[in-house]
Amino acid sequence: MSAMLLEAADIHVSYGRSEAVRGVSLKIAEGQIVTVIGANGAGKTTLLNALMGLLPFTGTLKFPQTPGAGLSVIARVEAGICLVPETRDLFGTMSVEDNLRLGAFCRRGQRGFSTGEMFAEVYALFPRLQERRRQNANTLSGGERQMLALGRALMSRPKLLLLDEPSLGLAPVLVKEILARIVELRGLGVSVLLVEQNARAALAIADYAYVLETGVLAMEGPAESVAGDARMVESYLGAVAGS
Amino acid sequence: MNFLIFGFLIQNALTTGAIYVLISLTLVSVATVTRIIYVPIGEIMVFAPFGLSVLMGGQVPGTVWLLMMLGGLAFLQDFWQMFQARSRHGWRKAVLLYLVMPALVAGFSWASAKPNVPFAIQLLAACAAPVALNPVLFRVAFQPIASATRLVLLIAAIALHFALAGAGLYMFGPDGLRTPGLNGVAFRIGLIPINDQFLLILGACLALITGMYLFFEYTMYGKALRATAIHRRGARLVGIDPDSASQVIFTIAGVVAVISGLLIGPLTTLFYDSGFLLGLKGFAGAILGGLADYPMAALGALALAGLESFSAFYASEYKDVIVFALLIPILLYRSWRQPAQLEEEHFE
Amino acid sequence: MSKGRIAALLALAACALAPAYLGGYSLSVLDNIMTSAIIAIGLVLLTGIIGMVSLGQAAFAGLGAYASAYVALNFNINPWLTLPVALLAAAVPAALIGALTLRMSGQFLVLATLAWGISIFYLAGALPMFGGQNGLSGIPPLAVGPLVLATDRGMYPITLAGLAAVVWMSLNLLDSNFGRMIRTIRYGAAIGESAGANIFLLRLTVFTIAATFAGFAGWLYTFTLQFLDPGAFSLDNGIQYLFMAVIGGVSNIWGGLIGAAAYSLADRFLSGYLQQFFGQSFNVSAIFFGVVMLILMQTARGGLWPFIANFVAPARREVAPLAPIELPHAPPAGGRVLQVANAVKKFQGLVAVNDLSFEVEAGEILALIGPNGAGKSTIFNLITGLLKSTSGNIHFLGRDITAQRSREIARMGLGRTFQHVRLVPTMTVLENVAVGGYVRHRVPLWKTLLRLNRDGERRALTEAAYQLERVGLLLRQAELAANLSLGEQRILEIARALNGNPVLLLLDEPAAGLRFNEKQQLAGLLIALREEGMTVLLVEHDMAFIRQVADRVVVVQYGEKLTQGSVADIQRNQAVREAYLGVD
């Protein structure tokens, strides 16, 4: 029984007058890739932002391995929980190398942490970033930006990575590449909570899956069973006959 | 207008221009990192020379008391936050920055007010309190509203200026001050007369600009501040605390302001409220750069100084009218270049 | 009569009788409060209502003051004739300055007010004809027949009458078609533009009115003191007037009055009594008000007014519905309402919309769907005129609207709602809907100021009520829009759009964030509108909702049209499934 990294129970998030997330519970254990899939507007990004502390929410959120993490965004980052948001939030007018270096900001001066080592790891995972390390981040292509966003989050050697729609705006072949890298993260000791609109691709690499439908969990289970479940398809295309 | 006068006007423009450049670059950095237009920078500027004169007279300047008072207030604010969150997170910073640091500055200033203290020490002490005020001012006045709209932040900055100017009057009185200039070097390059004040100002300006450049380009903290300016949330997501970043840039602004104030002291009579006007003029340069573009801001500041210098000669009563009236087409040009942001720029 | 009205009338009576029981000093304080209040009320309109912070109102007062003083001293005319001079001296420069600076946004605008505030102040101090730093003195007083109106006591009735007039006109202004529209400005120019209003012109009008009020205050000041110096119109004063408005409550006319009174009284108290404690050279006022403003920014940006407002609940009018008298846009009997042809939109190298073409036929509900980032919002903005397309063209009712401004397109019969509901939370449901009919109910400004448009007002509100009945919200007409649920707010926005008598309704994710029964209500409304002949184009994600309401669907991906057809068609379409569910 591996250790729990994140336990969320009965999470409610309000966006103005609407409740975007209603009573969602989920958990992630060490070494897992967990995915939350759902159609547009299901509340996936809102849920992820709330888990990261960017949005206020009600319900209980525990980080059993790092109790202090729940206090603030910075506390989570220092505890080893990083978010790669949908909008990537790169520092466009700074170089790739500087973006990566800043990814390790929270570890500056920590004993046993070597920025050089982290660079080596990230460049090994994403060789294209090494090629472009002196270029400004806003000159990169969509796929390269995604890699940079991921690489920056990895520079602080996080334990848990929250990824918001990594496939967004990417051509199918790039989607394959990014997701393959995510699988490799497990080997580096990083667990992943992956939020995705591209259900099939996400289910192919995940261990466990949650399906979100207009703010509520419609179903959950091991990824293979969710992938094969007709109800999941209905949730996306609304093709429910007679109900 | 003969060549001598022309040369003198150029020198005058470069001298005041250098100061305006420093102020405008500082205002731009503060605005990009914090979204605040730091109107009170003018008060910080004059607190240094006035403080020096008080120290040389054997007294502790009022800015030290102000620092201690605000430090205590800032500590209470942090304490209240910790109490409400039932957490001791950040207590070390609160104690060091808001209790220990003001106490150290107070001790240093008190020691420097004694007779027979070397001028250099007194100079340092005169700078200490105004510089130290800045991160504390951020905590007290701006941190609680750090995510408000730019308009609200601007109104708060204006209110802070109002209060600090009033405090300045109380601490330093209504009389003017002119610090003695240096006398030694005097020669000419082409048309332009050179004296040590001129060299000192240009030298200090170049040194500060170089220093700031190196800081932002090559140090980790400098890069972190730039990142906060580029994408505030992105900076948070890599562990950069936007409030700490703001305090750092406020402190840097304080250092530049204090040095500028001391440099301009010998050139003109300073009053407790002279800073505001100086700040506004440096500000005009910053606006030309759209509050984001450093080279344009510097150019704007120099152009403004040039305009001021020449109109002071030709039409001295209208000098200030010309300078400020010119802000309007500059603002118009800037606003046209930078289309209105989509964020609601409302007040409440 | 409401509590508030009683309180106001009592206050007016007390003020009117003041000269009888107040001494000279107190009367001058009251006089000063009243002239400050006139300026503060202008600031309420500027800052509180349309969200434009101005530090230069003192400068306009200065213009009015100096112009009237100059004319009074140098021309042999009846001093009363200097009043129109003062008003013009403030209004004309304001219109010019406004035309230049109001195109600026937020911060730049405030700084512009700072700039001309200082310029005018220095100009007044520099020009010899204004007496330089010594100012002008010996200004002849006003007179009514043999009665000379000099100093505070003499000018008091004029000042009080002036303040009452300013308050009355401001209240009239806000309680009108014009007033409702300017109240939307804070919440985004897109609201007004979508109802066909020229937001820039509206802002300029309010700006000029505020400046004219300040000029009037300057005129009163001149003839009360018979003496002028530029120090009264400095930037510091400009800052103080802003502080007054904010302290009182910047969103409300009465806040302007309360703020002027509170500020002036506190100021007198501080400079007078406390100064004796602390000795001279202690500018307690400045420190005090600076700190007060900082505290207000942190804790109570609404100022004092919200606390007082609890005691004065304004009367809420209920209105019966009436069908609109004119129907300027006859729905076309069949035919093409909207045609998008080869539309392309590029943003700095990113192609958001790529050669997209589709049509909307009369009387149908067409849904635009597609995965996140597909370009749907961009398409919407191209159609409504908020964005200009890089190439391609768009035709609405047969006319080319590709290069048209959004307000012109709105006036042609295009109504829209927004992805994030944009209502004025402090106005009632009825008032929010009335905004939609703005263009139809415009009247000359002077009629609005003098409350001469009662018939038009009644028509505007009854037509709004008609739309509310149409969407089923008539019973909620007197409630504040902020108190409605999200679903009801979405429907309210549709009612506002309907009030413009549109031919085509554009709905941006109307079902987003709604609960199941709210979606059912919305679907029912859309179907009912279609029965009445309305054409609807909507962007949505919710497939179940679309299945209920849409006749046809256009699927967009990567800014291009993937396919189109009936709902059943596209649900079976393999390419669509892949677009949504993703590929392995």
Tell me what you see in this structure.
The complex is a heterotrimer of chains A (243), B (348) and C (584). With 243 residues, chain A is of the alpha/beta class. Chain A has helices at 44-52, 73-79, 96-103, 115-125, 127-131, 142-154, 172-187, 199-205, 223-228, 230-237, and strands at residues 4-15, 18-29, 33-37, 58-62, 81-84, 160-164, 191-196, 208-213, 216-222. In chain A, the strands form 2 sheets. Chain A has a 6-stranded mixed beta sheet with strand order 5-6-7-3-8-9, with helices on both faces. Chain A has a 3-stranded antiparallel beta sheet with strand order 2-1-4, with helices on one face. In chain A, helix 3 packs parallel to helix 6 (142-154). The model of chain A is unreliable at 239-243 (pLDDT under 50). Chain B has one domain (3-337). In chain B, 74% of the residues lie in helices and 2% in strands. Chain B has a two-stranded antiparallel sheet. In chain B, a hairpin with a 2-residue loop joins strand 1 and strand 2. In chain B, 49% of the residues are buried. In chain C, the strands form 4 sheets. Chain C has a 6-stranded mixed beta sheet with strand order 10-11-12-7-13-14, with helices on both faces. Chain C has a 4-stranded antiparallel beta sheet with strand order 6-5-8-9, covered by helices on one side. Chain C has 24 helices and 14 strands. Chain C folds into 3 domains: 13-232, no CATH class; 332-411 and 535-584, Rossmann fold; 414-501, Rossmann fold. The longest helix of chain C has 27 residues, at 199-225. With 584 residues, chain C is α/β, with parallel strands linked by helices. The model of chain C has no long low-confidence stretch (mean pLDDT 87). The chains are: A alpha/beta (243), B mainly alpha (348), C alpha/beta (584). Chains in contact: A-B, A-C, B-C.
